[in-house]
Amino acid sequence: MKIALDVMGTDYGPKELVLGAVQAVKEFNCEIVLVGDPETIENLLREYKADTDSRLSICPATEVVRMDEHPSIAVKTKKNSSIVVATRLLREKKCDALVSSGSTGAAVAAQRGFSRAVAYPSSTTDNRIDLVNVFHPQVRNAVANSICISHNQNVLFLTGANMAGKSTFMKSFGVAVYMAHMGFPVAAEKMEFTVQDGLYTSINVSDNLNMGYSHFYAEVLRVKFVASEVAAGKNMVIILDELFKGTNVKDAYDATVAVIEAFSIHQNCSFIISTHILEAGQTLHEKCPHFKFAYLPTVMEGRIPRYTYRLTDGITADRHGMQIITNEHIVDIIREGSRKIG
Q: Would the pTM of this model clear 0.85, i.e. be above it?
């Protein structure tokens, strides 16, 4: 095993960490890369008579992230700090593990690619949420996307197949907005935003058997509550996934167009709304020039769908549902069962 050791991060200096590394290679016969100031490390290795041990190597780092520094800012501004360099070794698979007794926040921010958002008061600037390469913090090797929702384009109308990544993108956006308002680092390369009064989502809304509410009625009540908050003049972030999917296509089309158009008038609010009703997008595209339209594409390789997870401008023309059903041989299974019974 090869371990990257940040020897500069501790409050007590590198001496004890270098000594620990010397003892570790002797006891466990592992390899350790000592990340930090080369001259300091070389002097300590000579002092411990380990300067010729091939299991110990040095990776130069000229900067240090102090405990009193904000982690996400420090890792962005100190590219040659010991924790950033050690993390880079791990990310590039030049080491199998990373050990640091320095700033835990800096270690996480450096490893995960998080950054600190910049907030602006709503009283001094128009509504804006600008995210560069935002991704879901819990999805390994997540594909990042950039999005800006502003006063002049306050609605993102999102289309694409179920497996194309719409819900994951919407959750990524929502998590970033929430974490930024908490003052935590966000899973994005960069984020600037106007402070909001609240965040409301309608994703995976279920029915309520105890109250006697169907899926559709539960969703209607959720949207009604959101409408009341928006109408009260609050600065809100609203995320609605597959709006009104619990009713028939005609009513879903009419409701989607009417509700989204009414919401969009409130330019102090930001909306992301996804749907499979492509005709609604085409109607809104003609009526609402301040909308932003994007989709997550499906690329068919023969009969097999592949998903890029990359936001693309426009409204999707993908209609591959029947092909997927055909790939799973559902109709063939039913017909074969009928022949056996007959």
A: no
* Closest to 167 in 3D by CA, of 207, 136, 124, 206: 136
The pLDDT tens digits along the chain (342 residues) read 999 999 987 767 789 999 999 999 999 999 999 999 999 999 999 999 999 999 999 999 988 877 666 656 666 677 888 888 988 898 889 999 988 876 655 666 666 778 878 899 987 778 999 999 999 998 888 999 999 999 999 999 999 887 888 999 999 999 999 999 988 889 998 999 999 999 998 876 665 666 667 777 888 888 899 999 999 999 999 999 888 877 888 998 999 999 999 999 999 999 999 988 888 888 998 888 889 999 999 888 887 888 999 999 999 887 767 777 777 878 888 777 666 665
Calpha distance 139→145 (Å, rounded): 14
Beta bridge partners of 239: 201, 272
The alpha helices in 151-307, defined as continuous H runs, are 166-182, 215-231, 249-264, 278-287
Phi-psi region of 309 (alpha: psi -120 to 50; beta: other; left: phi over 0): left
**Torsions phi, psi of 169, nearest 5?**
-65, -45
What is the maximum alpha-carbon separation in the chain? Answer: 88
**Helix spans in 164-239 (H):** 166-182, 215-231
The residue type of 142 is A
Are 177 and 129 spatial neighbours (Cβ–Cβ below 8 Å)? yes
Q: How far apart are CA 225 and CA 124, in angstroms?
A: 28
Strands (E), the chain: 2-6, 31-36, 56-60, 97-100, 118-120, 128-134, 145-150, 155-160, 190-194, 198-202, 236-240, 270-274, 291-296, 298-301, 304-307, 312-313
Phi, psi of 272 (to 5 degrees): -120, 120
Q: Shortest CA distance to 102 belongs to which of 111, 91, 94?
A: 111
